[in-house]
Here is the input.
Amino acid sequence: MSEFMTTLHLRIYDAVRALRRAHERGDEALCAAQAGEIEDLVEIAARHGVDIGSGYKELAHAA
Here is the structure.
């Protein structure tokens, strides 16, 4: 896996974890910000042909 792909996957993973923590605390503003970051990262992945769907289904569902 290239450094770009690794970094992208790690950033998505971190953003999903942050979204889950914000949701648990009931911080709606932070939830919205984290959701926006995840959307941006997914868009970047799509533009570069990086398949992220299979690796994050469980995390995204839990969030």
Notes: The mean pLDDT is 86.
